[in-house]
Amino acid sequence: MELAVSLAAEAKLAEPGCPCPAAVGFHGLGQKLLFQAERRYAELDGRRLVLRPETTRGLPAQGFTAMTFFGDWPASAWAQLREDDSWDSGDTQGALYRWEKDHWRRVKATEADEQYGPWYRGDGSIGAIVHSFGGGYSAQSVILPLDPQSKAPVPRLARRADGGQRLFVLASTSLPTGHLFVLGNDSQNPRRDIPCVERFSPGAETGTLEALPLPPQPPPRLEWRSLAARSPNDAYVAGVLADPPEHMGPTVSYLAHFDGTTWSLLDVPAGLWGPEVSVAEDGTLWILNDTPDANPALSVAFSSQLLRRAPSGDWAQVRLRTPSGPVGADVIISHVFVHGSVVWFAGFTKAQRDRVLVWTTAPMDAMLTIPP
Q1: Long-range pairs of 144-148 with CB within 8 A, sequence gap ≥ 24
Q2: Average pLDDT of the chain?
Q3: 55, 83, 130, 159 - which has most CB atoms within 10 Å?
C-alpha cells in the first residue's frame, strides 16, 4: 500500500555514522515534538518544523547530542546528553539536564553505558528508570523519583533469592497513566534466555513478572527486541527468535500482544531482522524492519521495510508517497515515531548517508532545510 506523506525537513550531517546516520531522531515532550539532527533541534510549530536556538539554551557548546528527552514540556522536561563529540552512544560520558523556565540546567553526570528513560508516576509527577546496558542488557536497573515533592511509592524490580536483579533488562516503556512495562530475560531460569515482561501498576511497589509465550520448538533466543505500549491493555513485543550469536542459523519472526490480562502470540510476516515496533492512537501497529542485502559487509549493506498492521489485524507493506511522487526504492527508512495521531519518518539513501529526509502524515506548509 502507498501512504501519503509530506516532506517536512532535509538535514545535512557533519558525521553520518555507520550504518545509519548518527544522532538523528525524534523526541516527544508531551505536546512538544523535537526533531534532532546531530546538535541541531527543530521544533514542530503548527504545520512546519522550525529551528529555535533557545531550545538549546544552557547546554554546552559542544557534545550535547541527545541520548533521550522525556517528560512534559515545559513543567517537567528532562534530557540526557552526551558531553563529548562522539556520535556513538556506547561508552561516552553524559549528563542529565532539566528545563527550568528558559534554559537547561545540568543536574548530574551520568555514567558510561547508563541510559535514562521515563517513569511516569500517575500522579502528575515524573521519575526515571535507569539502565546500565554494558554487555547488551542491564543487570542493574533502578527506578527513582526525579521530583522530590511526589510521595508516590517507588517500585523495585523483582529479585532473585541471592538478592540480584531477576530480569536482565532489554527495554522499558512507561505510560502517563503510571503503568510501566519492563522487558528482559529471566536470569532465575537456568537457560537465562526466557523472555519476560515485568508490569507495574500505578502506585505499586512490586510488579507482575510474566514469561512471554513462545511458538513450538523456537530457536533459543529472542534477538533484536522492541517494546511499545499504547495503553495498559495494549502492549507489544517484537523481535526475532534466532540461534545466537547474531542471527546465525534459522530465524523466526516474533510478535506478542498484551490485552490487559494475558500475553498471546500474533501472526507476523516472516523475514523480520531488526524490528522496531510503534503503536498509534487508533491501535495501528508500525514495524520498521531491517532487511540485510546479500553478501556485502553487513554494516553498510541493508535496506528497510515498513510494515503496517491495521486494527483489524491485516498486514501491509507500506511505500511512502509525496505529492511529487513515490519515495524512491533506494531510500532507507531509519526512524518511525508516533506523536499523537501523526506518524513521522526519517530516512536516507545508500549513496548519501549524510543527507537525512523527514516525512510526516500531517500536512506541512513548508520544508525546513537544516545545514550541517
Answers
A1: 144/119, 145/121, 146/76, 146/78, 146/98, 147/76
A2: 87
A3: 130
